[in-house]
Structure formats: structure tokens, C-alpha cells
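Possible regression after last week's pipeline update?

I re-ran a chain I had predicted before the update to compare outputs. Posting the input and the new output here so someone can diff against the archived version. Not blocking, just want to make sure nothing changed silently.
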Amino acid sequence: MSRRISQSITPTTEDVTVLRGTFAAKGANDPVITELRRVLKEAVPGWLTKLTEEQELTRPRLEEIKAAVATRRQIIEVLPEGKARSDALAALDNAEKTVGEMDSELSVGAFGG
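New output (post-update):
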């Protein structure tokens, strides 16, 4: 027979309450989920949902989009690997590329033309 060494601790009622409460699924009413939704929503400039091809974008507006991309990327990057994460990051990469191109064109237009 081999020897077995075991160390364990029996949690108190308070310990169980703290540990369970920390990880309890609260669904849509979870304050963390509510805050996450708020941050995602507030990161997007209000005018962006109404953007059309007829409107012009200024450098400050492009900066607002860059900030929104950065905020969203921070949140999405912590998600586990998978299609939703990959698709969201690809969309952000595309938005970032588009804004970068527009910003470059603005710079050339301002100094070259």
C-alpha cells in the first residue's frame, strides 16, 4: 500500500456564500453584463448609425471610430477562441483598415492638394 498525503480545508458557511456568490449566474440581470452592454453601446459614436455616403467625415470623427474600435477590441480579445471572436476581430480589423485609409487620404488631401 502506498502512502497518501492529503491537505484540505472545510469551508465555513460564510466561505461558501462568498465563493458561490462570486460566480453565480445572474442572467440578463447580472450587473457585470449590464455594464458590459453599456460600455459596448457607449463606445460607438451616436452619429455612426446614421452615417451615409453623402456625409463627410472629419479627422475628429475618424478618431472617434478609432477609439470605438480600440474599446471593442479590448473586450472581444478576452473572449475564448471561436467563430464569434474571430468574426468580430476581423470586422474590427476591416474597420481599422478603412479608417486608416481614409485618414491617410485626408492627410494627402490636406498637404497635397
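Follow-up from reviewer: compared with the archived run. The chain has a mean pLDDT of 92. Marking as no regression found.
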